[in-house]
Write a structure and sequence with these properties.
There is one protein chain. The protein is mainly β. The chain has one domain (4-83). Helix content is 0%, strand content 67%. The protein is built from no helices and seven strands. It has a seven-stranded antiparallel β-sheet with strand order 1-2-3-4-5-6-7, with no helix packed on it.
Length: 84
C-alpha cells in the first residue's frame, strides 16, 4: 500500500498509520509519543490491524496484542471494534 493515514488528535498532535507493502503497519500515537508495529489485512470493506504493543517500560515491556477493525468509507477509516 505504501500510504499514510493521519488523524488530528489536538493542536499540533497527529496520530498516523503508515502502511507498508509487506503487510506491516507503523502506528504513531501522538499523545503517548510511541510508535507501535503491527500487521494489516482486509475483509471486504473492513481493515483489520493487529498491533504489537511493547512500549510500556513500567510493566517490563510486556508484549500485548490488540486487534482493531476499521470500516472503510470513501477516503475515511471509522473504528468499529477493538479487541485485546
Amino acid at each position: 500500500m505504501n500510504t499514510v493515514w493521519v488523524a488530528k488528535v489536538g493542536p499540533g498532535c497527529n496520530d498516523s498509520l503508515k502502511f507498508q507493502k509487506n503487510g506491516g503497519v507503523k502506528i504513531y500515537e501522538c499523545e503517548a509519543g510511541v510508535t507501535i508495529h503491527g500487521s494489516y489485512t482486509f475483509s471486504k470493506d473492513t481493515l483489520i490491524i493487529t498491533e504489537k504493543d511493547d512500549s510500556h517500560p513500567e510493566d517490563n515491556s510486556k508484549i500485548m496484542y490488540f486487534r482493531v477493525k476499521y470500516a472503510i468509507r470513501k477516503n475515511y477509516l471509522y473504528p468499529i471494534k477493538a479487541v485485546s
